[in-house]
Design a protein that fits this description.
The chain is an alpha+beta fold and 499 residues long. It is built from 16 helices and 23 strands. The protein is globular and about 65 Å long.
Length: 499
């Protein structure tokens, strides 16, 4: 009898395989980074073949560390960095170009062209999204226009497209030998190409953006049995869960009721609030997206605030400025000072995402004086994450009318006590970390386990959720207001930098 569920969490900087037991506890984990490729300013790429290789390696390692056989595994769930586009040849299995990553801004001219007729919200009613470089559809068009022969091969039906989940599932289920070309509703809702109401590809939108519909994967639910793994340590195990990473984290945090919200702190930050079966169109710069769909049940929707650069700013201190040798050292350095010294860092490396959606913005240090030292820079780096998240909470309050009484948090940065305390301070509500902070992989495991009967229902999953730590706000209202005022002033300094 199966004892565990497996999850493959393919993220922006690494691939991770995790094995969970029935209580949602981690049994084993294996993780490997992959190369970040920056061919030009604003361009970000990954090698799809490297991602596939690392994914296989971490699955095998996690299974070995768990001492598990395929008989022990009820199912595999997949979760992935969203909006990262891969185009490959359905006959050879070879990518025609590197994966164009969600942070990449090379499609800005395509976005501008599409915006001339109908503006930035041209597709928002159907897709729930503004026109922005963030989403997959324009990335596919860029690949077809810039890789020699790709347009003709796509129109002939030889090329296929998918976010990273599609690429992994295709390879896991046989690749050129009968691999499944599919995605789920959450990933499809991040392409600009799916109609949120019908949960199907919109032919008119695809034609306008320039993506042949023959390239598009079949859209499935987030929790159902799709097929079997045909390679590696999980050969014969059912693949039964597929969610984009932020929806997976929402599922792993068991935010199943309307108004429940979570914030994931990773390379970027992503906050989602469950809006139930209702499509809520944002007037405050948020995205309307599919939160999840279990089997043939009605889809559940969400409002999302997407922030491009949070944990990536810490990596920038480490890799570009060499101020720290490892990411966790940022907290120790920040603790050498009492405050930010008047410094505000707005990390608009790839423009600004929610709630501004300004692809022509670029990052700034504001309030810089001779007084500022490395400790202040480290502290301002952490505070930038909290300020950006606070702006998303404001937008959610405006759109949904829901007052947040606490915030569930997850992801790698929630191990940073200073950041979590400042987040509670600037929001004015408690911040709560669960015992299993890596809820992205857990959500994928939950979806797969639900589809295969490992868990009976969503209430079983709620019972697994347990609080690890809670931070209470300690900042008074006047200080909170003053800090946010200077933050917003700094944000305005990033606008319209690219002409």
């Amino acid at each position: 009898m199966a004892k565990y569920v497996a999850a493959l969490d393919q993220g922006t900087t690494s691939s991770r395989a995790m094995i969970f037991d029935h209580s949602g506890r981690v049994v084993a984990v294996a993780q490997k980074e992959h190369e970040q490729i920056y061919p030009k300013p604003g361009w970000v790429e990954h090698d799809p073949k490297e991602i596939w290789a690392r994914s296989q390696e971490v699955i095998d390692e996690a299974m070995e560390r768990a001492g598990a056989s395929t008989d022990d595994i009820a199912a595999l769930g997949i979760t992935n960095q969203r909006e990262t586009a891969v185009v490959w040849d359905r006959t050879t299995g070879e990518p025609v170009y590197n994966a164009v990553v969600w942070q990449d801004t090379r499609t800005d001219k395509i976005v501008d062209e599409l915006s001339r007729s109908g503006g930035q919200d041209r597709f928002r009613d159907k897709a729930g999204l503004p026109l922005a470089t963030y989403f997959s559809g324009p990335k596919v068009r860029w690949i077809l226009e810039n890789v020699e022969g790709a347009q003709a091969r796509a129109e002939a039906g030889d090329l296929v497209f998918g976010n990273i989940d599609s690429w992994l599932i295709w390879n896991l289920t046989g690749g050129t030998d009968g691999g499944l070309h599919m995605t789920d509703v959450t990933n499809a809702s991040r392409t600009l190409l799916m109609d949120l109401r019908s949960l199907s590809w919109d032919n008119a939108t695809a034609s306008t953006i320039g993506v042949p519909t023959s390239m598009l994967p079949e859209i499935r639910s987030s929790s159902e049995v799709y097929g079997e793994v045909r390679t590696g340590a999980l050969a014969g195990v059912a693949i039964a869960g597929d969610l984009g990473d932020q929806q997976a984290a929402t599922f792993g945090q068991t935010c199943f009721a309307v108004g429940e919200a979570k914030n994931t702190y990773g390379t970027g930050n992503f906050m989602l609030i469950n809006t139930g079966h209702e499509l809520v169109h944002s007037k405050s710069g948020l995205l309307t997206t599919v939160c999840y769909r279990v089997g043939d049940q009605q889809p559940v929707y969400a409002l999302e605030g997407s922030i491009a650069i949070t944990g990536a700013l810490v990596q920038w201190l480490r890799d570009n400025l060499k101020m720290i040798k490892a990411a966790p050292e940022v907290e120790e350095l920040a603790a050498t000072v009492e405050d930010n010294g008047g410094l505000y860092i707005v990390p608009a490396f790839s423009g600004l995402y929610a709630p501004y959606w300004k692809s022509d913005a670029r990052g700034v240090f504001a309030g810089l004086t001779r007084y500022v030292n490395a400790g202040h820079i480290a502290r301002a780096t952490l505070e930038a994450t909290a300020y950006q998240s606070a702006e998303i909470v404001e937008a959610m309050r405006t759109d949904s009318g829901v007052e947040l009484d606490s915030l569930k948090v997850d992801g790698g940065m929630v191990a940073n006590d200073m950041l979590m305390q400042f987040q509670a301070d600037i929001l004015g509500v408690p911040v709560i970390r669960p015992e299993v902070a890596e809820t992205t992989a857990l959500g994928a495991a939950y979806a797969a386990g639900l589809a295969t009967g490992f868990w009976d229902n969503q209430e079983d999953l709620r019972e697994n959720w347990a609080e690890d730590k809670r931070w209470q706000p300690q900042l008074d209202d006047e200080a909170r207001r003053r800090n946010m005022h200077y933050w917003k002033k700094a944000v305005t300094r990033t606008f319209d930098w690219i002409e």
